[in-house]
Amino acid sequence: MARIYHWQDTGSPSRTLTGTVANKLRTILLACLVNGYQDKPGAGWTLVHDATGGFSLRNGPGTGIINISDYDSSTYMVIKVTLLETITGDLTKSIPSGDNLRSGQGAPSATPHLLPLYGFQQNLSTAVWTVVADERSFCMYMGGGAQDATSTGYATLRAAWLYAGETSNGTFVAFGGTLTGSPSSPSYDGDGYTVLRDPVTGLVISGAGLELTSGGVSTVQATLAMTDPVGGLDLLPYPLLYGDRVSGSAVSVGSLRGVVVSPRHLRMNDSSAEALLGLPVSGDSRGKPMTIDGITLCPVAGGLPARCRCFLTDHADYW
User: What is the pTM of this model?
Assistant: First the structure.
């Protein structure tokens, strides 16, 4: 059963977050995925490694492990995302050793999978977060700084998201952030990825593997103030492609669980999306759950300047 965890929930970690960037994510994710709080149980994940500067979580079915570690916690506020199948040693290190360990397009990789969180780290008094999760996967949204910003520089990153776990076709992936070796990269596209096994064959990937992309929806940027005179939401699962889009060899490999898009609203900025759902237009409404027509939606966007408008949901049809 999927659940929505939100910073304004009674008993949640809220904005009481300390330490490095990785430690702040540890506080939130352990509360949501492992321990639970108040009347909400944890989603069914297990903490399998915990060290200074990094920690690792395994999903309920045991199909994969995500490691989150500090990559640059003093200047650019960036974490590194690593996936692996089993942990075999180095438990005191931020990234343990293990089987099929991958970050970005390979392991070791000159272009690791990074998640920039400068806006979140530097604006904790106004930061927001939302997690939607079950025992197989989760998606975490983090908003910091001013909403509706359109700058692409790392210093004004207004939002980030991280998806990890199984997709709708059972492939264990991490999605969000960027692939880069430079934490000061001026622009983050929100399409960073790590794939644990080939989504088509199910085999261990040799070398860099192919590209995992969002099926074209994230080429749209959610930066426009707009209203919808038609009304209504035509919700679709967030699609994934694997392969070379240029040559036409990319194939559909399912979707992100619990993440939906509405084609007519892909370009809505934060304020417009909040108004669309009937939420107060406020920075605190980013990622805030609202139930309309029997479905609970949380307005979020991945990357900056946010890429497309997305919604997180716990509705069973999208899990």
Answer: 0.94
Output the pLDDT for position 54: 97
Query: What are the φ/ψ torsions at residue 284 (nearest 5 degrees)?
Result: -70, -15
Instruction: Count other C-beta atoms under 10 Å from residue 38's C-beta.
Output: 10
Question: What is the pLDDT at residue 249?
Answer: 82
Q: How many domains does the chain have?
A: 1
CA distance 304 to 159: 7
What pLDDT score does 305 carry? 45
Residues of the domain holding 248: 3-318
What are the Cα distances from residue 58, in Å, to 44, 63, 125, 292? 9, 8, 30, 33
CA count, 13 A, side-chain hemisphere, 126: 13
Instruction: State which residues of the chain have pLDDT below 50.
Output: 186, 304-306
Q: How far apart are CA 113 and CA 255, in angstroms?
A: 20
**Among 33, 49, 52, 50, residue whose Cα is nearest residue 41:** 33
Tokens of 129: 């977060």
If DSSP codes are grouped into helix, strand and coil, which group holds residue 283? Answer: helix
Cα separation, 276 vs 267, in Å, equals: 13
d(CA 267, CA 200): 31
Q: What are phi and psi of 275, to 5 degrees?
A: -65, -40
